[in-house]
UniProtKB/TrEMBL annotation, chain A:
UniProt-recorded name of the protein: NitT/TauT family transport system ATP-binding protein
Claim: Ribosomal protein is one of the keywords in the record: no
Domain of life (superkingdom): Bacteria
Organism of this sequence: Celeribacter neptunius
Residues making up the signal peptide according to the UniProt record: none
One GO MF term: ATP hydrolysis activity
TrEMBL record, chain B:
Membrane topology note: Multi-pass membrane protein
Gene3D superfamilies: MetI-like
Domain ABC transmembrane type-1: from-to ranges: 84-272
UniProt organism field: Celeribacter neptunius
Protein name as annotated: NitT/TauT family transport system permease protein
Similarity remark: Belongs to the binding-protein-dependent transport system permease family.
UniProt key word Endoplasmic reticulum: no
Primary location class: membrane
Origin superkingdom: Bacteria
Stretches that traverse the bilayer: 32-49, 83-107, 119-142, 148-170, 191-210, 216-239, 251-276
Length: 268, 288
């Protein structure tokens, strides 16, 4: 599999997907998402950061097509096919009765391809997450971090145009989370993939992304966007640098701004 | 002695402390006890049964000793074995139909909510009405005695399979269901690759219950059906022996029914282990 050329700098990227004036209302009165506008470009690593109830997960479900917007539009450049999208959930979401390679095979299996026909793709995806030696293992034989890697391999195997990650590392311990953060960036550098990453953590969003979309709650909406202009590759050194601390402060301020916006409205 | 010697010793022989030793001993004891204890207790019970009969000089037409029961079993083996065969045949046939009917209905239920809403009440009504009270009607309407027996045993056995399998089919991980949707899975693919494997442990739990119930169903139905002659099962032999006050033969037939139940349960448990031991929590042994 040939790798695409490097990711162009922000501002020179081609458009992949556009959400315009997207509203989602549940039960006729619960506004989960109000007037969301977001342009996703090829190569973007976007974090959706916000308190619970801000509609982050709703936004992901709308983009993935699991839900339709109440009003507004989500348009993919060139239309969207199955396999254009990879998804990683907060839980590894593996089938316990299937081996690692059978789990990664799933997107192809549902398209009627035999495991032998896509053996190369499966092994490539497993190699990308460093689990090529575990193809015959069952999920229960793996640690939490390894299960998450299998889940990531499954999302990569179709070479999707966009990967959605819904708080994928929230349930892991901090050491494993840092390791997977580093590996995810390395993977992104290799594959030049586009990622939308939902998180509660300011630190995680700054470390990973080049764009942080800060969201506010009740009703769920976009509050502001923070650009993280630190260069990639980002290593462990970046994690302890002054730049990182400064960026975290900026993102944290934006998040507090979003929370106060809500507070002001609630008390008004 | 030098330090290097000590290091060498510790790297070849694993260090086992007092607690680990105690734990290992307890494990070993438990392993032996698991087999030895039941055998001992059952042997003791049989011995006491024998002693009670001998010491109290209980006549064999009231309570036969275990020796006499075994002797009768061997003596009447020709008659009892053909009766056993009839009962086993009905039980297994009823269980098979219960599996096919239970799983089939469960699949239909999960494919259509409206179908489930319409027919679930019937399944519950069939289940809660005692089979003894339906059986006489069944034998009025159904001409074939064998078909009637089968029907009774089926009514008793199919419900646990139906309800367990339905529960299993509906217990799929909701994220996995979303994933299947995102990848454009068809209804059939979702059933085959996701719902059926999820339901397997539930189904096997139902099968273990249904195995015992189909035997009960077969026996109860035969009590009700009554008419003897060729092709009568163990239940009829028990009734007949009771009329003739041939208590040892009653015990011998009872022994065979109990043994059949144990064999069915064991077979279902083995099947369950064979299908689940690689991945399901219930079949996995904890290391510590």
């Amino acid at each position: 599999m040939t790798l695409p050329p490097s990711i162009p700098p922000m501002g020179q990227r081609e458009k992949l997907l556009e959400m315009s004036n997207v509203d989602k209302v549940f039960n006729g009165n619960v506004v989960a998402l109000k007037d969301m506008n977001l342009t996703v470009n090829q190569g973007d690593f976007i974090s959706l950061l916000g308190p619970s109830g801000c509609g982050k997960s709703t936004a992901l479900r709308l983009i993935s097509g699991l839900m339709r917007p109440t009003s507004g539009q989500i348009a993919w450049e060139g239309g969207m096919k199955t396999g254009d999208l990879g998804v990683v959930f907060q839980e590894p979401t593996l089938m316990p009765w299937a081996t690692v390679e059978q789990n990664v095979w799933l997107p192809f299996r549902l398209r009627g391809k035999s495991i032998r026909d896509v053996q190369d793709e499966i092994m490539w995806a497993l190699k990308m997450v460093g689990l090529e030696k575990f193809q015959k293992s069952y999920p229960r034989e793996l640690s939490g971090g390894m299960k998450m890697r299998v889940s990531i391999a499954r999302s990569l195997v179709t070479e999707p145009r966009l990967i959605l990650m819904d708080e994928p590392f929230a349930a892991l311990d901090e050491i494993t989370r840092h390791k997977l953060n580093n590996d995810l960036l390395e993977l992104r550098d290799k594959l030049k993939c586009t990622v939308i990453f939902v998180t509660h953590s300011v630190f995680e969003s700054v470390f990973l992304s080049d764009r942080i979309v800060v969201m506010a709650a009740r009703p769920g909406r976009v509050s502001s966007e923070v650009t993280v202009d630190a260069p990639y590759p980002r290593t462990e050194e970046f994690r302890t640098s002054a730049d990182y601390a400064e960026l975290c402060r900026k993102a944290s301020d934006a998040l507090h701004g979003a929370m106060n916006e809500h507070g002001a409205r609630a008390s008004a | 002695m030098s330090t290097t010697d000590m290091n060498a010793a510790s790297s070849t022989a694993p260090v086992v402390d007092e607690e680990e030793l105690r734990y290992a001993r307890a494990q070993k004891r438990e392993k032996i006890g698991k087999w030895l204890l039941p055998i001992l207790v059952i042997s003791l019970a049989i011995f006491l049964w024998d002693r009670v009969v001998v010491w109290n000089e209980i006549p064999h037409y009231i309570l036969p000793g275990p020796g006499l029961v075994v002797k009768t079993l061997i003596q009447d083996w020709g008659m009892l074995s053909s009766a056993l065969w009839v009962t086993v045949k009905i039980t297994l046939a009823a269980l098979s139909v219960a599996v096919i009917g239970g799983v089939g209905l469960a699949i239909l239920f999960t494919q259509s909510r409206y179908f489930e809403m319409s027919f679930y009440p019937f399944a519950v009504i069939l289940q809660v009405t005692p089979v003894v009270s339906i059986a006489p009607l069944i034998f009025i309407y159904v001409d074939s005695r064998l078909a009637g027996l089968l029907l009774c045993a089926w009514i008793v056995a199919f419900f646990p399979i139906l309800s367990n399998t339905t529960l299993g089919l509906n217990s799929t991980d909701h994220n996995l269901r979303d994933l299947y949707k995102i990848y454009g899975a068809t209804r059939w693919q979702r059933l085959r690759y996701l719902q059926l494997p999820t339901a397997l442990p539930y189904f096997l739990g139902g099968l273990r219950i249904a195995g015992g119930l189909s035997l009960i169903g077969a026996v109860v139905a035969e009590y009700v059906a009554g008419t003897g002659g060729i092709g009568s099962g163990l239940a009829f032999r028990i009734l007949e022996a009771g009329y003739r006050l041939n208590i040892p033969r009653m015990f011998a037939a009872l022994l065979l029914i109990a043994a059949t139940g144990v064999v069915i349960f064991t077979a279902a448990s083995l099947l369950s282990h064979a299908l689940l031991h690689k991945w399901h929590e219930s079949a996995i042994k904890r290391e510590n």
